[in-house]
Structure formats: structure tokens, C-alpha cells
TrEMBL record:
The active site is at S40, K81. One of its GO terms (molecular function) is signal peptidase activity. This is Signal peptidase I. Coiled coil: none annotated. It comes from the Bacteria. Its EC number is 3.4.21.89. The chain crosses the membrane at residues 12-36. It is an enzyme of class 3 (hydrolase). Residues 10-177 form the Peptidase S26 domain. InterPro entries: LexA/Signal_pep-like_sf (IPR036286), Pept_S26A_signal_pept_1 (IPR000223), Pept_S26A_signal_pept_1_CS (IPR019758), Pept_S26A_signal_pept_1_Lys-AS (IPR019757), Peptidase_S26 (IPR019533). It comes from Virgibacillus oceani. GO terms for cellular component: plasma membrane.
Amino acid sequence: MAKRKKSEWFDWVKALLVAFGLAFIVRIFLFAPIVVDGPSMMPTLHDRDQMIVNKFIYKIDEPDRFDIVVFHATDKKDFIKRVIGLPGEHIAVKDEVLYINGEKVAEPFLKERKQHLQPYETLTGDFTLEELPGGYETIPEDHVLVLGDNRNNSTDSRMLGLISMDQIVGKTSLIYWPFDRLQTLHE
């Protein structure tokens, strides 16, 4: 009887160790939670929204335009922004219109914000890729240009410069908390 209880206890310990080990592997290599900090992605993301980051997607695929990504902005701070420019592209914004390689590109996620602008207000402000830190003519390989959806209140590629793929933690598209905002995000 004592041997049986000891065996049962040992089985529980093994099961817990395996569960913790799997959770650790998933957390480190596959998925991680993140809390949105600040208003830079409003109205798409709200301050304190809790999301899941897919950490392995960019090991098997490249970012797509308008993906929402988490990246290391500094050694101590991760930012969450939207991918606007991809390698080989030239980016410019003129009169609230995004131009990629000289072609107008719609940004449907900004429609609501643009409708509420006063005639004297700007959301994004005019810029060209050459005017950003680094002075590139086109986005180099393994880099992306990111912008916050709340363009007039966002620290993004306009200040930070282009983001290296090595800085990117992963892609996020699921808000899981608060529960009333539970949703997957699409452009």
C-alpha cells in the first residue's frame, strides 16, 4: 500500500514536471502574452489589451503588409506596431495618403480616424523614406517600416528608423482580454 502511494505521488510529480516543461517551451519558443502599453495603436488596440504573440511565424514566413508585430525597441521595451513597408519598397505619405513605390495604397484600419479629423489636423504627416533615420531610398532586405495606427501619437519608424527582422518578436492578432474585446484582428 505504501509503495502504491509513493508510485502515485511520483506519477503526479512527473506529470507536473512534464506540464511545466511543455508550458516553458511553448512560452519561450512558440507563443507569449503581451499587454498593450499606451495609445499608439488606437483605435485598433486599446491600452491594457492583452494579446497572444505568435513567436514562430516569421521563422517560416515573411511579414505581410499590415501585420501587427511586436518588436524590441530597446533592450528593456517592446513595442507593438503595424508593418507598412516591406523590403525593396519605397514608402511615402502625402496628404494622408500612403504611397508604396509611387502607388496609392488604402489603409482601411485608418478610415474611422481619418473621418474624424478636423480640416487643420493631420493624422500621419507627410514624409518620405529618405527623410527617416537611415536615409534609405528603399527598405533593405530583412527590414520593415512600422507605424502605429494612432499616427499623431506613436513612436515608430518615423523616429526609430527601420526595424530589423532580428528585432521582431512575432506577430499578434488575438485580443483575449478584456473579455468584451475578445477578437482576432484583420487589416
